[in-house]
Amino acid sequence: MRFGLLLGWAAAASAAYVPGKAFDRFITIWLENQDYTKVVEDNDMKEIAKHGILLTEYHGLTHPSQPNYVASVGGDYFGLNHDEFVQVPTNVSTLVDLLDTKNIDWRGYFEGVPGPGYMGPATHAKDGHQLIYVRKHNPFVSYDSISRNGTRLLKLQSLADFQTDVKNNALPQYAHVSPNMLNDGHDTGLHYATNWTQTFLNPLLDNKQFMEKTLVLLTYDESETYSKPNRIVSVLLGGAVPDKLKGTKDDTLYSHYSILSTVENNWSLPSLGRYDVGANVFAFVAEISGYKNHASDDIAAVNNSLSYPGFLNWNPSEYRPIPPPNLKLVGAGGQGVVDIVKTEWKLAAGDETPYDGSGHLYDGGDGLKSENEPVYKPQAEYTPQGAVRSVRFDA
Ligand SMILES: *[C@@H]1O[C@H](CO)[C@@H](O)[C@H](O)[C@H]1NC(C)=O
Ligand SMILES: *[C@@H]1O[C@H](CO)[C@@H](O)[C@H](O)[C@H]1NC(C)=O
Ligand SMILES: *[C@@H]1O[C@H](CO)[C@@H](O)[C@H](O)[C@H]1NC(C)=O
Ligand SMILES: *[C@@H]1O[C@H](CO)[C@@H](O)[C@H](O)[C@H]1NC(C)=O
Ligand SMILES: CC(=O)N[C@H]1CO[C@H](CO)[C@@H](O)[C@@H]1O
């Protein structure tokens, strides 16, 4: 016990505490597989949304679950279209490398993980059947740049560790939370998950220490109905949300890449040079920081039902090498690509890249035609075309 406390103290002391423009702490909580239209009708979710901003045009990136989690920290899902065991090579950097540039501490909290840094595929309930923790809902562990680094691996902890960190006011400045396969709704259902969420969130929303300058993103990973556009409910909560915006709606186009762009924007971090660049920053944060969102995509055209080809695609004919990042891009943090990426991808600096900084959401089309697959172009800076988006918060 005393040893654990000491370790915690040592870890906290080595990390910096870096104030952000709109928040000092970002916590994202992920639920599973529900369509927007059903979730907004749920009474628990209506209660939750009263405390924050409902994002009405937030989209999952593809199906099934795993690529959505992977994309949220790496800026691409690399063609992934399944939930099986995958590994992304060490030369692919993540959000962790961005946070490291300012020594900002982070952790992943996964309900049912048996111990820090667990790399197995799943854990089961006592009945031996019911899945509890699943690797596919862990966005960090599939990246070799994280799992092959002991310091980073040990930051993948359990939900019990989250509660301990809340109690000790020892939460890191970035945290991902995945409830287990029951509580996230995957093996139960919509109401079970929103009810769990209320039970989980309410004490936190009443905890002044926790709420102070904290931004919580409650989101789903993907929608339920694969034949419909991948629109999901997401809500921004916490003490960082201005009071006058509580209970409002924001209809800006967002995706899981907005997590990266918003964090980069808030802490003036460099970028990954992938789809993080150009993704809209959460509008209230952009308003505070003075950043202009420019992704002007036609929201009605977003589908995101199928994965485009790539390195992690299960279909051999859809295999593609990992695309080189666009080393010329400047992200929402006002900075270029992070140094480690520039070093790792130096030899590919002359290669064409699909990352153009426009914020356009590519997908696998309808599976027959490929008109919305990534388009490779020479590496270049991005200059926004046309008008920047004005922000509206509707009551
Ligand atoms: C391992 O992770 C730590 C903490 O993120 C980082 O400072 C260090 O550079 C990493 N080591 C390697 C070899 O990537
Ligand atoms: C909601 O959660 C509470 C606390 O965990 C539990 O007691 C209650 O039975 C749940 N209600 C429903 C409808 O699942
Ligand atoms: C990145 O790593 C992969 C897998 O080891 C390798 O195939 C690829 O050539 C590497 N890319 C660069 C630019 O080094
Ligand atoms: C979205 O893509 C899916 C899968 O290809 C397709 O079945 C569906 O018709 C598309 N929906 C729209 C509105 O384009
Ligand atoms: C790391 C960083 O850029 N911090 C800045 C965040 O925003 C505040 C307020 O604008 C600045 O004072 C910090 O320097």
UniProtKB/TrEMBL annotation:
Pfam families: Phosphoesterase (PF04185). GO terms for biological process: phospholipid catabolic process. Residues 1-15 form the signal peptide. InterPro entries: Alkaline_phosphatase_core_sf, Phosphoesterase. This is Acid phosphatase. Transmembrane segments: none annotated. It comes from the Eukaryota. Residues 356-383 are annotated as: Disordered. Gene3D superfamilies: Alkaline Phosphatase, subunit A (3.40.720.10). It comes from Oidiodendron maius (strain Zn). One of its GO terms (molecular function) is hydrolase activity, acting on ester bonds. The keyword Lyase does not apply. Keywords: Hydrolase, Signal. The keyword Hydrolase applies.
